[in-house]
C-alpha cells in the first residue's frame, strides 16, 4: 500500500499538520496538507501545505524565505494528524513575525500576547 | 469580550486542540474541543475534549484514569488551534497504550511503529 493511503484524508482531502521545532520542541504552527503537499514534503524534505484561504499548494516560506526543512514525519494512531520535526529558516514561523503562531496565552480569563515580534511583517513580505 | 469568543470555532463548533507534554515537549495527541470542553478545561485545569466518534463531551482519562492536568493554554494567530501544556497521568496518552499517539514514523516510504506499547489496552480499559 502506498504510504499516502494510510493517511485518513478528511472530506476536503486534507490532513492536519503540526510543525514542531526539532531543536527546542516548540510547536510552531498548525496547517493543512493535501496529498500533493505531503508527497512533496516527503520527497523534497521541505514543508509544503495546502492553503485553505488561497485554495492552492503553498510551499512554506515561498515569499518570506522562511522555509522549513523536515527531519521527521510522523502519523498519529487514527491517521488524521501529521507531525513534522522541522528546522525553521529565519527562526520565524508566524506571519505576524513571531517565532511561533502559538503566542497567545490564557491568563485570568483573557488571551495575552506573550511572545515578541522578531521582525516586522512588512519587512518579511516585501518584494 | 469573553475569551471563548476569540476562538474561531469551525462549522461544527469545534477547535483543534494539541496536548503537549509540559516536561518533555513531546506532542502526545490531537483532538477537538467544543466551547463547553474548552471552558471546562480552563475552569478545572483538566483536559476535556469533544469526541467526534461518540458525539459527546469527553473528559480525557475518564475511563482509563489517564487524566491530563493542564498547565497552560495557548491560542494560535488565527484562533483555530489551541495548544495545551499538560502533565499526563500514567504516562500514556494513546488508546493503544503508548505514550503518544504520534508513534508512526515515515521511513523509506512506509510508516514504522517506533514507540513501544507501555501497557496493554485491555488492561487500561477494563472495568
From TrEMBL, chains A, B:
Pathway: Amino-acid biosynthesis; L-histidine biosynthesis; L-histidine from 5-phospho-alpha-D-ribose 1-diphosphate: step 3/9. Its EC number is 3.5.4.19. Homodimer. PANTHER family: HISTIDINE BIOSYNTHESIS BIFUNCTIONAL PROTEIN, HISTIDINE BIOSYNTHESIS BIFUNCTIONAL PROTEIN HIS7. Keywords: Amino-acid biosynthesis, Cytoplasm, Histidine biosynthesis, Hydrolase, Magnesium, Metal-binding, Zinc. GO terms for molecular function: phosphoribosyl-AMP cyclohydrolase activity. Residues 29-102 form the Phosphoribosyl-AMP cyclohydrolase domain. Its cofactor is Mg(2+); Zn(2+). Catalyzes the hydrolysis of the adenine ring of phosphoribosyl-AMP. Belongs to the PRA-CH family. It is found in: Cytoplasm. Mg(2+) binds at residues 76, 78, 80. This is Phosphoribosyl-AMP cyclohydrolase. The gene is hisI. Binds 1 Mg(2+) ion per subunit. Binds 1 zinc ion per subunit. It catalyses: 1-(5-phospho-beta-D-ribosyl)-5'-AMP + H2O = 1-(5-phospho-beta-D-ribosyl)-5-[(5-phospho-beta-D-ribosylamino)methylideneamino]imidazole-4-carboxamide. Zn(2+) binds at residues 77, 94, 101.
